[in-house]
């Protein structure tokens, strides 16, 4: 009989369509009331749990894995950073503080007095600025980061000028700040590297004071930007404030000396910071230079960081070429004499000098190193800058004493460079000279042109004298240094500081240029001081000087 209750009817109707539902229904009807209540209670409980999950739990459970993931990532990152710091710390070379005594003789005292005189003037009129203009008693700005302080602090330390050193150290700790103070201008990447980074590195090695390492890393991170080129050779200029790199305004090429004279510093920064990235940049750029084809080790003075090609054909050991060759030898020493490519490239370039650039000047028979134009035409021009080569060859000879021609050439070139000083009425060398190579001509051996008659207080001959004296023990080299020092005292010393001069030929009117170059204190006075010592304070197997006279250690590899 058909049930008239609409619910049951419908239900029954549905049941007709499903035998499975019918059995379920029958089963339900057969259950005891308590059993039914129990099942209903279980169903309701499940329903509550489900609703609860939808409204709170689901949200939470959905979020949990994300939070969990994020926390895990943070933990992992921290662990990785800890590991990196540990790794960096364990890679860092340990520095041994060095103590220097007071001057030991009259000559050293005189040089230290000169340093005092120069420093006092800078301290009084230009403190915190880059350089001093000693005639106008005013500061001059170049990079905006206290160049003279950073470039010269290791000289103060070596000369045991404690008060001045402490002052300089304090300034570097509190006021050396590329963000706040550097000028918003493009400046030479090479000059900042050799003078400022070099200064920070060397004073760190001498004192072990961590503030210098910190500053070196801050600066090194900026300088690294320039290596970001298709070849890995650095661009010529950097704007420290904007952290931007650029080529020169007039060409995208860089000077050979500029791309080849930053490797000692970047490599050293990696060794003391434990961070490999600087050394990688140094190695990559050194490899690019190594892989270029050369004329008996010689190369033109311009190269493109964009494609690695040389341009022009001028070959010179003076401006724009010099320290590329210098650093070949010094990189070999810095890396424990293990990387033979550096020695091979260096000795090959000395072969190139002998074959293409080494000539006798008449009538006095002075050997000199000339230049090539268009890679083949010889020019008898020599910059004072090239006088570094004498010391550099003597240094190379000290590691391979069977190569006696290196010492012979070093002696000959030192003599010629000294004559460049001694022949002038002021006893000071001009910036550039020309030699007479024709034995039949009755002219002077050395000629100075009006535009080249200036002296910038440069160090190259003094640097070579320092090597020559300690490698030969010949006191003549100390005496030559003393003569030159006295000429500096006589013709470049001002009431306040020292000034480069315009005319070394005219002792009655040298015409001061109103500029005290930071390298006069960083290099010239430092090398003079070292030259007059009784023993070599920086043995050549343990130390190398960067091209700005900042001592850096030689490593084992
Ligand atoms: C210094 O900055 C360095 O010695 C550089 O290698 C050449 N020029 C000056 C000194 O003359």
UniProtKB/TrEMBL annotation:
Record's subcellular location: Endoplasmic reticulum membrane
Catalytic activity entry: N(4)-(alpha-D-Man-(1->2)-alpha-D-Man-(1->2)-alpha-D-Man-(1->3)-[alpha-D-Man-(1->3)-[alpha-D-Man-(1->2)-alpha-D-Man-(1->6)]-alpha-D-Man-(1->6)]-beta-D-Man-(1->4)-beta-D-GlcNAc-(1->4)-beta-D-GlcNAc)-L-asparaginyl-[protein] (N-glucan mannose isomer 8A1,2,3B1,3) + 3 H2O = N(4)-(alpha-D-Man-(1->3)-[alpha-D-Man-(1->3)-[alpha-D-Man-(1->6)]-alpha-D-Man-(1->6)]-beta-D-Man-(1->4)-beta-D-GlcNAc-(1->4)-beta-D-GlcNAc)-L-asparaginyl-[protein] (N-glucan mannose isomer 5A1,2) + 3 beta-D-mannose; N(4)-(alpha-D-Man-(1->2)-alpha-D-Man-(1->2)-alpha-D-Man-(1->3)-[alpha-D-Man-(1->2)-alpha-D-Man-(1->3)-[alpha-D-Man-(1->2)-alpha-D-Man-(1->6)]-alpha-D-Man-(1->6)]-beta-D-Man-(1->4)-beta-D-GlcNAc-(1->4)-beta-D-GlcNAc)-L-asparaginyl-[protein] (N-glucan mannose isomer 9A1,2,3B1,2,3) + 4 H2O = N(4)-(alpha-D-Man-(1->3)-[alpha-D-Man-(1->3)-[alpha-D-Man-(1->6)]-alpha-D-Man-(1->6)]-beta-D-Man-(1->4)-beta-D-GlcNAc-(1->4)-beta-D-GlcNAc)-L-asparaginyl-[protein] (N-glucan mannose isomer 5A1,2) + 4 beta-D-mannose
Major localization listed first in the record, in broad terms: endoplasmic reticulum
Species of provenance: Rotaria magnacalcarata
Annotated membrane topology: Single-pass type II membrane protein
Any one GO cellular component localisation term in the record: endoplasmic reticulum membrane
Cofactor entry: Ca(2+)
Residues annotated as the enzyme's active site: 191, 322, 431, 460
Disulfide topology: 387-417
Its EC number(s): 3.2.1.-
Enzyme class, UniProt record, top EC level: hydrolase
Pfam families reported in the protein's UniProt record: Glyco_hydro_47 (PF01532)
Stored PANTHER family: ENDOPLASMIC RETICULUM MANNOSYL-OLIGOSACCHARIDE 1,2-ALPHA-MANNOSIDASE, MANNOSYL-OLIGOSACCHARIDE ALPHA-1,2-MANNOSIDASE-RELATED
UniProt KW keywords: Calcium, Disulfide bond, Endoplasmic reticulum, Glycosidase, Hydrolase, Membrane, Metal-binding, Signal-anchor, Transmembrane, Transmembrane helix
Keyword Membrane: yes
Keyword Plastid tagged: no
TM regions (residue ranges): 36-53
Protein known as: alpha-1,2-Mannosidase
GO biological process: carbohydrate metabolic process; proteasomal protein catabolic process; response to endoplasmic reticulum stress
GO molecular function per UniProt: calcium ion binding; mannosyl-oligosaccharide 1,2-alpha-mannosidase activity
Positions that bind Ca(2+): 547
Function statement: Involved in glycoprotein quality control targeting of misfolded glycoproteins for degradation. It primarily trims a single alpha-1,2-linked mannose residue from Man(9)GlcNAc(2) to produce Man(8)GlcNAc(2), but at high enzyme concentrations, as found in the ER quality control compartment (ERQC), it further trims the carbohydrates to Man(5-6)GlcNAc(2).
UniProt pathway: Protein modification; protein glycosylation
């Amino acid at each position: 009989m058909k049930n008239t209750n609409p619910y049951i009817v419908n239900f029954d109707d549905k049941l007709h369509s499903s035998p499975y539902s019918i059995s379920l229904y029958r089963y339900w009807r057969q259950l005891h009331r308590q059993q039914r209540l129990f099942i209903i209670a279980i169903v309701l409980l499940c329903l509550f749990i489900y609703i609860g999950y939808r409204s709170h739990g689901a949200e939470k459970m959905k979020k949990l894995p994300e939070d969990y993931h994020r926390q895990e990532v943070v933990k992992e990152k921290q662990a990785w950073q800890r590991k990196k710091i540990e790794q960096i710390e364990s890679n860092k070379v340990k520095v041994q503080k060095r103590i220097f005594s007071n001057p030991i003789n009259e000559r050293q005292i005189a040089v230290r007095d000169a340093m005092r005189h120069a420093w006092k003037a800078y301290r009084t009129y230009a403190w915190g600025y880059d350089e001093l203009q000693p005639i106008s008693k005013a500061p001059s700005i170049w990079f905006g980061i206290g160049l003279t302080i950073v470039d010269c602090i290791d000289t103060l330390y070596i000369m045991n000028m404690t008060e001045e050193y402490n002052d300089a150290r304090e300034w570097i700790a509190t006021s050396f700040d590329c963000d706040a103070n550097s000028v918003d201008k493009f400046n030479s990447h090479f000059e900042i590297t050799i003078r400022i980074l070099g200064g920070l590195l060397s004073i760190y090695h001498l004192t072990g004071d961590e503030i210098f390492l910190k500053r070196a890393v801050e600066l090194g991170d900026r300088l690294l930007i320039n290596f970001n080129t298709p070849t890995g050779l650095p661009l010529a200029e950097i704007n420290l404030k904007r952290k931007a790199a650029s080529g020169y305004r007039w060409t995208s090429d860089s000077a050979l000396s500029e791309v080849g004279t930053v490797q000692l510093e970047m490599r050293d920064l990696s060794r003391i910071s434990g961070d490999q990235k600087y050394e990688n940049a140094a190695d990559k750029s050194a490899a690019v230079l190594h892989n270029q084809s050369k004329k008996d080790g010689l190369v033109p003075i311009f190269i493109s960081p964009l494609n690695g090609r040389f341009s022009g054909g001028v070959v010179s050991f003076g401006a724009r070429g010099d320290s590329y060759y210098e650093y070949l030898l010094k990189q070999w020493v810095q890396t424990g004499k293990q990387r033979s490519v550096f020695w091979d490239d260096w000795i090959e370039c000395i072969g190139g000098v002998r074959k293409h650039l080494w000539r006798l000047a008449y009538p006095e028979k002075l050997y000199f190193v000339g230049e090539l134009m268009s890679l083949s035409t010889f020019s008898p021009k020599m910059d004072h800058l090239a006088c570094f080569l004498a010391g550099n060859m003597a240094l190379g000879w000290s590691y391979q004493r069977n190569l006696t021609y290196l010492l012979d050439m070093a002696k000959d070139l030192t003599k010629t460079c000294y004559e460049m000083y001694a022949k002038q009425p002021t006893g000071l060398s001009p910036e550039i000279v020309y030699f007479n190579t024709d034995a039949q001509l009755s002219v002077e051996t050395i000629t100075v042109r009006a535009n080249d008659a200036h002296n910038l207080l440069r160090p190259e001959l003094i640097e070579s004298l320092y090597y020559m004296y300690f490698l030969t023990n010949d006191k003549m080299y100390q005496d030559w240094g003393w003569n030159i020092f006295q000429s500096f005292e006589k013709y470049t010393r001002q009431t306040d500081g020292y000034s480069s001069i315009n005319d070394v030929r005219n002792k009655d009117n040298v015409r001061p240029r109103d500029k005290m170059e930071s390298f006069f204190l960083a290099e010239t006075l430092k090398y003079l001081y070292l030259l007059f010592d009784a023993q070599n304070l920086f043995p050549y197997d343990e130390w190398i000087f960067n091209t700005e006279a900042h001592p850096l250690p030689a490593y084992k590899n």
